[in-house]
């Protein structure tokens, strides 16, 4: 009698759904997709903002969104949640990749790292001087910092769109230049265009940084545990008047680049857990498998570096090394 496998017992709808989701996942992992989506979204936004419907465009960006419980409510417009909150996650990913390159990549050599740093400084100073040369007098002179910023999101989008046609060293150079340029521009805004920095916020951010180092010293490898100190750093920088997305850069550069030391060799742990799972299945105790499976996932997660634990580039089109 032919034995029916578990896969053959699955409903056809489930099989078709899994195939569709797998195809969608493969599509989203295509390097050029993210860059194309970014460029299309930018084109749509430009057309919308300059069309007769421009009022609805600006109304959307200033739409209020609130987060809180009871009387503790944090209310901000939509553009704040995108520019100051979601972009923090973006800067976190970029900071992690820069940290990895500093450890063992193209930025590990000071001579190589000095080139994008010098280029970023030149990319800030030269446009500002050109602007002042053309607008040196009058109120317009106050806008000297406008041409100093680089749109790092578009820089990454173009890199993703071009894919593997760009050498890895060029990718590292361009991304490092973009993020340093962006950080300098944020600092310019904080020091020259804000009403002054609130230094009490730095104490709050420092508390979050101390918490991160303490958790790392205890060997905590779960990313979810670092959400709280990350939020404290973000809140502290927001209190200072500086751009809170710098919290993402700080956390990214603090991310460990070596795997957590395990008490057991990963291969030994895999063999032991596999034997345990097989024994549970043979004894009909499949409902007791959740513990060994969680341990297996934990060992797998701790075996890789936080910046590349998925074994795929954290940024579309980024070389894994």
Automatic annotation (TrEMBL):
Assigned keywords, A-Z: Cell membrane, Membrane, Transmembrane, Transmembrane helix
Membrane topology, from the record: Multi-pass membrane protein
Pfam families xrefs: Na_H_antiport_1
Transmembrane regions listed in the UniProt entry: 27-49, 78-98, 110-132, 144-163, 172-193, 199-216
Keyword Lyase among record annotations: no
Signal peptide: none
Subcellular location: Cell inner membrane
InterPro entries: Na/H_antiporter_dom_sf, NhaA
PANTHER family for this protein: NA(+)_H(+) ANTIPORTER NHAA, SODIUM ION/PROTON ANTIPORTER NHAA-RELATED
Record's protein name: Na+/H+ antiporter NhaA
Lineage, broadest ranks: Bacteria, Pseudomonadati, Pseudomonadota, Alphaproteobacteria, Hyphomicrobiales
